Task: structure prediction
Amino acid sequence: MTATNIEQDGADTCDAVVVGAGFAGLYQVHRLHQAGLRVRAFEKGSDVGGTWYWNRYPGARCDIESIVYSYSFDADLQREWKWPQRYAEQPDILRYLQHVAARFDLRRHFSFDTSVQSAIYDEGARRWRVRTSSGEEISTRFLVMATGCLSKPLEPDFKGLAQYRGARYQTSRWPHDGVDFTGKRVGIIGTGSSAIQAAPLIAQQAEHLFVFQRTPQFAIPAWNRALTDEEMRHAQDTYDEIRRLVRQSEVGIAYASPDHGAKEASPESLRQQLEFAWARGGYLMLAAYPDVVTDLESNRLVSEWVKEKIRARIEDPALARKLMPEYPMGAKRLCVDTNYFETFNRDNVTLVDLRDSALDGFTERGLRLANGTGYDLDAVIFATGFDAMTGALLAVDIRGRQGLSLREKWRNGTLNYLGVTVSGFPNFFMITGPGSPSVLYNMVASIEQNVDFVSDTIDYLRQHQFASIEAKPREERAWTKYVDWVSRQTIYTKVKSWYTGENVDGKPAGFMPYAGGGLTYFEFVRQAVADGYRGFTLAG
Ligand code: NAP
Result:
């Protein structure tokens, strides 16, 4: 740090502060540094990785194929990197992000083990005043929140938890040295993606695994396997084409689906197409037909077919009934599994259906249900989810013009423009914020698009000597209303989920991501820019 970087009151000055060192933060820092900005970046963890730094539970892996769940911004990086498996495991994804950080020399911009506590906009100076957990103050012109959509875990809040004497773990805060469950009676609470990935592996180790299920989930087999050298080489050689197809898709994965809806298909062609989608496996089951998420009847046809497939994986029909989801497939985030349903065929696995009797709380020795049944457990794993999309943003006290806090502004919902900016918060950007496709798209591709927009916008401001950019209130209201309207044309609003915020007590209900498709969203952004940043105020 040079003397010129220090304001009179001791605050370090820089051009941009970036919060987070996951896929988003790393690429954002890279872009801004490349553009010649002085960047300071902060990360709560001790190293890079974001989601992949924290979520180290057994079985953690991506649910989008690694060939496309990777950066596209550097041709050499993608030509050289080899993914060992179709869906890479957490250690491999973390190794990749560490490699990216080293390759582009990004760690030097970061302060690790440091969280940003507040960011207050000084209207006179037109700068953000950022305060960190280490007590440092930074004065910055631009503030970019690359804090992730699923990074603020819900803290376990169960009656009697303090008296429980066994070991406790949380999938999203897993010990770095791993956990040995050999000979242990283990309980896992939750049946979302995290539990669905973890349970099969923990069952192989534990003496007994109890799965506490409140809502059965849809899971589609990943059919994960090692990638051959030839497959990887082919991907490396044809990456330009692969990325082009990704960018042309509404979900950020290259695929082709029929040009008609499921309900228009004859029974035989429906069966063939669904068998084809099933054999491909994973998240793309939702794209088996273009109307799976927009038409309830088409969704019902596909959901019922998938349920038959699930039923066939479970030996005991009574158990199969308990594991059967009862909502439109995809309305809660579709899970991608390896041996999840087969795990319940094991003698050492018990499903505890909390719809029969709710969880009452903890005792010294384990868990108790409302009907009095007790489960003695050596260890409990909380796979209970996140305060998604807004949790990490609102964990920071962010105040824009006239001291208005983002928490206050979003008290009744996530007002934003294009998912990236908020009116009243100049030069403030969110990567994959509410109102952007984010979690309904390939996250890495979504991140790259948002980061490119932010970086290009900052470049534009500097070139045209604008001091700041800010969403106009009218456009912000229109965009937020439109995002809400789009979500109501889909199945996503038919059930409570973390998409809608209803998994968190007291959080305003409202579907947060943009459900109109990535391609459509990118076009909105492109048009706004082409029209001279329509919807934004650019101040001199
Ligand atoms: P989640 O999908 O929100 O699942 C949380 C689970 O805990 C749900 O089954 C929920 O039941 C249950 N639960 C919460 N509070 C409970 C309580 N008090 N008593 C009983 N059950 C309770 O969380 P997640 O599994 O961590 O996944 C979150 C998201 O992260 C995923 O949807 C996905 O987008 C992402 N993720 C991705 C991967 C991957 O494959 N790459 C892996 C893990 C996570 P209800 O459904 O009844 O609320």
The chain has a mean pLDDT of 96. The radius of gyration is 24 Å. Residues 44 and 115 are 5 Å apart (CA to CA). The chain is about 30% helix and 15% strand.
